[in-house]
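Why predict the complex rather than its parts? Because the way molecules touch one another can change local conformation, and only a joint prediction can capture that. The input here totals 333 residues.
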Amino acid sequence: MQRVFSGVQPTGIAHLGNYLGAFRNWVALQASHECIYCVVDLHAITENWQTGGTLAQQTREMAAMLLACGIDAQKHILFAQSSVRAHAQLAWIFNCVARIGWLNRMTQFKDKAGKNRENASSGLYVYPNLMAADILAYHATGVPVGEDQRQHLELANDIAQKFNHDCGTEFFPRIEPLIMGPAPRVMSLRDGTKKMSKSDASDQSRINLTDDPDTIALKIRRAKTDPEPLPSEARGLEHRPEARNLVGIYAALESVDHAAVLREHGGKGFGTFKDTLAALLIDKLRPIAAEARRLLDDPSSVDAVLRDGAQRAAAIADPIVAEAERLVGFLRP
Ligand code: AQP
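Output of the joint prediction:
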């Protein structure tokens, strides 16, 4: 059975983009794969983070949300990245394998560091090396990723290949991106050209998975649109990013394509369509929010799931990373 690894940063409250673009697929993969899912708190500190317990609480909340979405932590593994040392150990080796030129080509660093490159953390720069370590520490070969992470996966394969070549071995396997049907990229409700993101300053830009029905309805009602009614064919969505985004969300929730949504709703004004979309969202998200709340009523139960997951994750990763260290040639007196 193919082993799958994926992770989410505890940088805020999980949102509809995380759900439709990732979590829903992670749940589906559990039927056919051995899945290792991780709340990647080491990645979360590559950009500004709040001290004083916030990171720990956000990690716990993200884990609760994954459980509420249907991650089965008994049959599969769910844990917090920083509690399995193998990630950081292997990442250091990969820092010494990856070439500066390779990292310089990573578009996500350029996007995230922006104009303030000199002030970005060195952790943000070597983030793809840690991501390679996350996957390869488990010899995972399948990674469900969006288009934006493809470049990082290619880098992970380059790192694995160079390690294997330098050590004269075939130790690390090749990683394949798992394409999960039309993976929707959910865009901001305020700007259809920007992706929906936890760290967007405006809460109105996203649907949090914890939002109550009134908040969801209000955010959808206020979502930016244009004055035209919905087109009746998918090509009518070209150059209408906000309309395309709302139709895309509806299509993803109903597991149909844009054309099917427009066959039913084409020609209608946004007022009517937004009401239908809000009702659909509330219907799908209300049980998830309720289950996450129930789990967080007893935080120690979520912590216990993560503790157990960390032990089982370490049992897989520790021997793999120990072997990588042996191949590098460290003295083990
Ligand atoms: N808007 C989105 N549409 C579709 N998929 C998305 N993902 C995130 N945003 C969208 C997918 O969710 C998984 C976990 O992502 P992450 O939270 O670890 O990192 P991110 O992509 O950087 O997400 P955010 O919300 O934008 O976080 P911040 O604001 O902290 O940077 C990934 O599989 C991602 O593709």
